[in-house]
Amino acid sequence: MKNKNMKPQVLLSVFIICFIFSCKEHQPKEAQEFNKKMEQTIAIHDQVMPKMSDINQLLNQLENQIDSTNRAQIESAMQKLQDSHESMMKWMKSFGDEFSKTEINQGIQTKNVDSLQLRLKALEKYNIEAKNLKKHISEAIENANALIEKES
């Protein structure tokens, strides 16, 4: 007799679970795109951020290698490193001012499609800037390393 009473309870449990999952709000595609783009942008930042200490080390090494024969090349390399570092700091400040900690860490919360489209457009701009920063920082570091190896 216990088996007959168990079937309705199991069916009811399965029905409740299915109901809960089917009622869960689905994010608009713009919100999904925003969250994916945010993850990509933060990943770029996380790849580039450790290079800030590399830039500082390279600046010190280059400064120690300046002499009259290589002054222009080394000063140019140092300027590129400094510009890269400053650009990264400005980008992070601007990015932090544009997006809330919730948007950065948990994704976008709004369901308003117009608002989502505006936020996504802003994020796409920052994503492109992050990619460009990564490229310029890498080039500045490579250039500095090449000069250091040449002078060694």
Structure description:
Helix content is 86%, strand content 0%. With 152 residues, the protein is mainly α. Helix 2 (29-48) runs parallel beside helix 6 (113-151) and helix 3 (51-65) packs parallel to helix 6. The chain is elongated, with a radius of gyration of 26 Å. The relative contact order is 0.16.
Could you provide a short overview of the structure?
This protein has helices spanning 2-23, 29-48, 51-65, 71-98, 101-106, 113-151. With 152 residues, it is mainly α.
Which helices and strands, and how do they pair?
Layout: H1 2-23, H2 29-48, H3 51-65, H4 71-98, H5 101-106, H6 113-151
For this entry, give a set of tags.
mainly alpha
Task: Tell how many strands the DSSP assignment holds.
Answer: 0
Instruction: Give the class from helix and strand content and strand pairing.
Output: mainly alpha
Helix content: over 70%
Helix-strand pattern: HHHHHH
Outline type: elongated
User: Helix segment count?
Assistant: 6
Main beta-sheet strand count, sense and barrel state: none
Overall mean pLDDT = 87
Radius of gyration: 26 Å
Spatial gap, N to C terminus: 88 Å
Strand content: under 5%
Query: Ranges with pLDDT <50 over ≥5 residues?
Result: none
